[in-house]
Design a protein that fits this description.
Oligomer: single chain
CATH superfamily: Glutaredoxin
Helix content: 10-25%
Structural class: alpha+beta
Strand order of the largest sheet: 2-1-5-4-3-7-8
Shape: globular
Distance between the termini: 30 Å
CATH architecture: 3-Layer(aba) Sandwich
CATH topology: Glutaredoxin
Number of strands: 11
């Protein structure tokens, strides 16, 4: 399944978002890494919760070569568990070892055409999309994983190899979008 806007080989979209540490992170912050993994995430989704430990382990395994960045784009008004304050709490509880960023206006999720949490976008050293999809083939039982799509793709990217499985379908909860209305001039307004 391909994304509408980001195809394999597409450039990393520019983003600049506030992290739970109150610092601003942009797509330029990770120039020294051979790979950047952007994961659309949140707090309340059971799929995300099931993967949190695996994401932490993945960052530990590739700390010198790859940066993982988690982005929460959910509507915090309708889903208070995904508010910025709750993001801080979740990160502290789980001891995230990667930036956890807040996409309050949902513009970055739209740039990526992201639809789910967790949804993964892996970019290589030239910041071209090398992998898009899910983390592995068993969200519920880590011991039963047969295909570690993301881990394998990161290894291939770091080694300068072509990614053997560049796309998978995504699984998880849908991103919780803010309500929008069509304006008289044809534009959209977020309510």
């Amino acid at each position: 399944m391909s994304t509408k806007k980001l195809k394999i080989g597409s450039s990393l979209p520019h983003f600049s978002l506030k992290g739970i540490d109150e610092k601003i992170y942009s797509s330029e912050n990770f120039k020294d890494k051979k790979a950047i993994v952007v994961i659309f995430s949140c707090n309340h989704c059971p799929y995300v919760q099931a993967y949190e430990s695996r994401i932490i382990k993945l960052q530990n395994n590739f700390v010198n070569d790859a940066a993982i960045v988690a982005i929460n784009s959910n509507d915090a008004e309708k889903y208070p568990d995904d508010s910025f304050e709750m993001m801080k709490k979740r990160s502290d509880e789980k001891q995230f070892n990667f930036p956890y960023l807040h996409d309050e206006d949902q513009s970055v999720a739209k740039l990526f055409d992201a639809t789910h949490t967790p949804e993964v976008f892996l970019f290589d050293a030239e910041r071209r999309l090398a992998f898009h999809g899910k983390i592995d083939d068993n969200w519920q039982t880590p011991d039963m994983v047969k295909s570690s799509y993301l881990r394998d793709a990161v290894v291939e990217v770091i080694n300068g190899e072509e990614v053997s499985v560049p796309e998978t379908f995504t699984i998880g909860c849908t991103i919780k979008w803010k309500k929008q209305c069509l304006l008289a001039n044809g534009g959209l307004a977020t309510l």
